[in-house]
């Protein structure tokens, strides 16, 4: 090894070779630096993606919890509303007897006005036939009213539940 080193000491390298060696060394150092920078960038990207995935999982869990809580809370409320409505409908004969039905006459005009209100359209001009009996008893009117009130209360509970659900979802995703 010493003999080889001794032979190299006597050799004089041309200037262009020295500059070429220095440029090659600089290029190698630059390349290693770029690789290190790329590795740090990839690590930062991996960390970002991991944090984003963790946030997505956390939001998904929170949303699932809200869905379940809202579903349980309002499904029970709506079920109770329908059960109470059925009880009220079944009690109509207690409050509206056959004698009450005989005393109270529901005319065709009342039925037209009622049906128009639920259709969302005007009933039109009054007619002479509006004074004729409609063949609907007071008990039927009470049962229909109880059914409609039950449906309205159930829809109201659903609407409130959906508003609450939407509000909680907005809080979670912020």
Describe this structure in words.
About 80% of the residues lie in helices and about 0% in strands. By secondary structure, the chain is an all-alpha fold. The longest helix is centred in the N-terminal third of the chain and has 76 residues, at about 15-90. The protein is rod-shaped, with a radius of gyration of 42 Å. The two termini are about 70 Å apart. The mean pLDDT is about 85.
Give Rg in angstroms: 42 Å
Characterize the largest beta sheet: strand count, sense, and whether it forms a barrel.
none
Q: Alpha-carbon distance between the termini? A: 71 Å
Helix content: over 70%
Describe the structure in brief.
This protein is an all-alpha fold and 174 residues long. 82% of the residues lie in helices and 0% in strands.
Based on the model shown, name its key terms.
single chain, about 170 residues, mainly alpha, about 80% helix
Helices and strands in order, then pairings?
Blueprint: H1 2-9, H2 15-90, H3 92-95, H4 98-103, H5 108-119, H6 138-173
């Amino acid at each position: 090894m010493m003999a080889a080193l001794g032979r190299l000491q006597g050799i004089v390298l041309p200037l262009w070779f020295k500059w070429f060696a220095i440029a090659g060394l600089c290029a190698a150092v630059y390349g290693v630096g770029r690789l290190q920078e790329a590795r740090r960038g990839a690590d930062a990207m991996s960390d970002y993606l991991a944090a984003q995935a963790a946030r997505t999982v956390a939001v998904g869990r929170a949303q699932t919890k809200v869905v379940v809580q809202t579903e349980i809370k309002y499904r029970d409320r709506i079920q109770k509303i329908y059960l109470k409505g059925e009880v009220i409908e079944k009690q109509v004969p207690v409050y509206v007897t056959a004698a009450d039905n005989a005393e109270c006459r529901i005319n065709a005009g009342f039925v037209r006005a009622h049906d128009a209100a639920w259709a969302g359209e005007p009933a039109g001009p009054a007619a002479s036939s509006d004074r004729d009996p409609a063949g609907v008893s007071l008990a039927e009117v009470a049962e229909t009213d109880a059914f409609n009130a039950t449906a309205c209360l159930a829809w109201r509970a659903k609407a409130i539940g959906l508003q609450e659900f939407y509000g909680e979802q907005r809080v979670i995703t912020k």
